[in-house]
Specification:
β7 and β8 form a beta hairpin. By secondary structure, the chain is an alpha+beta fold. Helix content is about 40%, strand content about 20%. The strands form 3 sheets. Strands 1, 2, 3, 4, 5, 6 and 12 form a 7-stranded antiparallel β-sheet that branches. The chain has a 7-stranded antiparallel β-sheet with strand order 7-8-13-14-11-10-9, covered by helices on one side. Strands 15-16-17 form a 3-stranded antiparallel β-sheet. The chain contains 12 helices and 17 strands. The longest helix is centred in the last third of the chain and has 22 residues. About 45% of the residues are buried. The protein is globular, with a radius of gyration of 23 Å. Adenosine-5'-diphosphate (ADP) binds next to β11.
Length: about 450
């Protein structure tokens, strides 16, 4: 084990450590759900920072590159990932799934490397660090001193399909450990803190977080209250579809809840002004062209889809631009008791941070949720378009009741944003879940051919 408690690695140490880890990580990273560059070999792998968080656990920020080849999920300049690596002589069988491999060479030769987030002991020690604000090399552990976090809460790693990794502690708190790291404050910390400042009760308020100051400032993880007994909107929608239950009451309440969150966001981040539909349409067209480049199935529909963006350029300005959620879908809303809560303000993971934090039309979020009703309805055979249509209607009705404007009266805007979202989904599914590609492709066909 390296002896330093923390480093921005000295070149020799970095080279040494990567001698041990390089090949193992090259094999392991592309198999992780949260790794964006799965479609191309990891041709570059570099160590950006290394901290010995506690004995047997290394905190790493690594840079991965693909020889400048751009990909749908990662930038051509490469990406930065956060890893917590456990290092042991032998790994107990219960941690088998966390295995990364055995180092053959370098300073860790002969030792077993594994993903430390699977290890309850490491997870507990990580919580301890968050409970005691302080520093570890470039890492800063901070929090809201008014919210006590008890010691000894038992950890469990969430096994859901995620863009990051989350640990639940004693059903009281949940820690999201960001995987793909971008410089700056992560909106999933910035936005919930700002909403809490507005007294918005729809978003769990962060109680502790950690960040790095090197190689650049970036948020690494956020701890927030865990809503126990909550179900996400996706699970509830599928249940309702399976049992033939009505979902319009929940959809209406969800629309209201979302309007409440949008109003709080507008108050928390004032002064955004109106969106310029012309430049939004141009950006959407560019995204479409680049998606069609990566996913050939999109190509026949490009002219039809472009017409939605062309129409956007001539639409009335619509509601003012403001901070939005940015990746709203049924999996991002939780129902606990009879209330809806909204989580995960990171935005679409593949978009640059500066874009995700920019003021945008709130129609982007509405379109995201409407697409999600369609996704849910398509999980049933035969497909249930009526179910999705009723949910859309109810959601928009609930939204309009509080927001002061009615999404249903903004047909041109809604069509453009739904199209843009469906294009994103095609790219997302092609990249992460090719079996699901027919779901957004069906919407692409509808939007391109019928335009509704
Ligand atoms: N505050 C919370 N209370 C209860 N469950 C939560 C909470 N925050 C997140 N979750 C659960 O964790 C899952 C992943 O969280 P999310 O923020 O969407 O992570 P990711 O960005 O990695 O996809 C959610 O689908 C939800 O089931
Ligand atoms: O990981 P995140 O939750 O941040 O979001 C990404 O993954 C989502 C899937 O887990 C993906 O959502 C798409 O599939 C959902 C059903 O699984 C559906 O409800 C959404 O409408 C659809 O967009 C999301 O796009 C992606 O950013």
């Amino acid at each position: 084990m390296p002896k330093t408690a923390s480093v921005s690695p000295r070149p020799a140490l970095a080279t040494d450590l990567m001698t041990s880890l390089g090949e193992l990580l090259r094999q392991w990273l592309p198999r992780q759900r949260w790794f964006a560059g799965k479609d191309r070999p990891v041709s570059e792998l570099g160590l950006l920072s290394m901290t010995e968080l506690f004995p047997g656990c290394l905190h790493l920020l690594v840079h991965t590159g693909h020889g400048g080849v751009p990909g749908p999920g990662g930038s051509s300049a490469g990406d930065c990932y956060q890893l917590l690596l456990g290092v042991r002589k032998n790994l107990s069988p219960r941690l088998g799934r966390a295995l990364i491999g055995r180092a053959e060479r370098g300073p860790l030769a002969g030792l077993t490397i594994y993903d430390a987030l699977h290890d309850p002991r490491s997870a507990q020690l990580l919580l301890e660090r968050l409970r005691h604000p302080g520093t570890a090399g470039p890492l800063r552990f901070e929090g809201d001193p008014s919210v006590p976090v008890p010691a000894g809460l038992p950890p469990r790693l969430l096994e859901t399909e995620q863009s990051n990794s989350s640990l639940v502690y004693g059903d009281e708190f949940i820690l999201k450990v960001f995987r793909r790291i971008q410089p700056g404050v992560n909106p999933d910390l910035e936005v919930p803190v700002a909403l809490a400042g507005q007294g918005c009760r729809r978003v769990p308020a962060p109680v502790a977080w950690f960040r790095t100051t090197h190689p650049q400032g970036a948020t690494l993880g956020v701890l927030q209250p865990y809503l126990r007994d909550a179900s996400d909107g996706w699970a509830l929608a599928l249940q309702a579809l399976a049992s033939g239950d009505d979902f319009t009451v929940q959809a209406h309440e969800l629309g209201r809840a979302m309007a409440e969150v949008h109003l709080a966001l507008a108050a928390a981040f004032p002064g955004s002004g109106h969106d310029d539909n012309g430049s939004t349409a141009a950006a959407m067209t560019e995204r479409l062209n680049s998606a069609a480049h990566s996913v050939p199935a999109l190509r026949p529909f490009v002219p039809g889809l472009q017409s939605a963006f062309g129409a956007l350029a001539t639409c009335d300005s619509g509601p003012p631009a403001q901070r939005v959620h940015g990746d709203l879908h049924l999996g991002q809303v939780l129902r606990a008791g009879r209330e809806w809560f909204v989580i995960d303000f990171e935005g679409e993971p593949s978009r640059p941070l500066v874009e995700r934090c920019a003021a945008q039309s709130p129609v982007r979020d509405i379109a995201g949720m409407l697409r999600s009703f369609d996704y849910a309805a398509r999980q049933r055979r035969p497909w249930r378009p009526e179910w999705a249509r009723r949910c859309r209607e109810a959601f928009c009705g609930g939204y309009a009741a509080l927001a002061g404007w009615d999404p249903r009266k903004k047909h041109g805007l809604l069509r453009a944003y739904e199209t843009d979202r469906a294009v994103y989904e095609v790219l997302y599914e092609a990249r992460h879940r090719p079996d699901w590609l027919p779901v957004p492709m069906a919407a692409i066909e509808r939007l391109a051919v019928r335009g509704d």
